[in-house]
Amino acid sequence: MSTTLFDKISELPKSCIQTEIPISGFEPITAYTVKGKHSGKHLVITAGVHGCEYVGILALYAFLSELDADSMHGSITAVPIVNTSGFFTGSKQTVPEDGINLNRAFPADRSSTDKSALIARAVQKHLYKGADFLIDLHSADINEKITPLLFFPVDEIVDESVRQKAKAAAEKISVSLRVASRAKNGLYSYAAITGIPSLLLERGGMGVWSESEVSECVKNLKELAAHLSILDLPDTYSGEKTAQREFTKNVYDEACDSGLWFPLVHEGQKVKKGDVLGKLYTAQKVLIKEYTAEFDAEIMYFTLSLGVSKGDPLVAYGAES
Ligand SMILES: [Zn+2]
User: Fold this and answer.
1) pLDDT surpasses 90 at 47
2) CATH code at 5-245
């Protein structure tokens, strides 16, 4: 077998327009737009905000290659790799030039010349503009294992109609878990604050990808585009759907210091209040902290990396109410 995923993905459609979004002093970001023959909504899809999150990146190339402008009502703009230097250097969660997590760089700091701030500014200027809906694809980086999930905005800072539209779209996507989020500084969460119904999809993890995960992600994008009436899919397209659950009560434990992290749970595991989720030690084997569950919950994701820095995510868990 000498066929790669890229060999299997047909060429991008002729109607696909490639543009370069300028980042002052750095390499531009490549965006692709397919304008449908018929008018309709404009969907913006981003991936590769975290450079080692491969499922979403590959899914976007595959999704673009399957678009047919003649049958589309509306348009789709896709950016497979937002953080290009992070992608090519394999940087965990950060933009290598400044060491900042790009998904914490929104809203863009207008006075900063950090590359992450420049990228955030460019995303806000070129991608938020004209978007009727935005989805940001993530894949749990090289250090995390995750249950596939959708984050959707619930904070009152987001307009109620925007929250409703985001939730209604999430319900149409074949992902069994949707997580209520009050985040304000991510690419998708700030888009929601500015009035664009938005979601964040997490699928994949540990810096690996499989063709089946990529296919599932493409399916999710088609479901979203169909919900927005951009694509026309048969009612049977999604097949048998498992009911989507909503986690409204969530905890995201972070490392209180740099150290050695030993998780004691796995994604999807049910835990009881007080259960030990993992332990953090110094390099001299002194226990820094034991992380315990604050309530009966289910593990959404956890970090596998042994070495962690202060502020790194360790374990996230949630419950339906
Ligand atoms: Zn990510």
Assistant:
1) yes
2) 3.40.630.10
